[in-house]
Fold:
Amino acid sequence: MVTESNLIASENQVETPALGLWQQIKEDWIAHGRDWTKPGFRAVAVQRFGVWRMHVEPKLLRAPLSILYRSLYRKIRNTYGIDLPYTVKLGRRVVIEHEGCIIVHGYCTLGDDCIIRQGVTLGNRYLEKPLESPQLGDRVNIGAGAKILGKVNLGDDVNIGANAVVLSDVPAGQTAVGIPAKIIKSRPVENNP
Structure:
């Protein structure tokens, strides 16, 4: 039996339609400043293509797309130094600012509107736990050279300083810097009369 409260609850839940491949790529293109030549945009576009091709049926049609994906993936990795496999759970409008030595673990999760800069590693910490990887919330800003290792959760609106080594969780809205990374207190904004 459907009650009135269940009916109202289902009406209040708005389902967000999933974006298609070209819609995602267009959104990423806009997030990267409408410049298709940026290596970060190219890496994200190839990752999105890799995810999309896994839904192509039958597998016979998927095979040539898989060959194309692997070729593009290796080109991006070897030319630009951006290792972003299709198994990464990539949010919307993720921006890779610069090329060079960017490694993202295959089981990593990146939320919407994250920014990654050059020299960043999002990887596992222990050889005996190869599937543990960082989980990033929305609007996470990662500075150049930062290393985020192991099963680490970064909340929404987190900032990671340049060259920080993050080994533990960072709550939402915080900034972590240093080796190992420590959360810093933000200074209150003073109003000048």
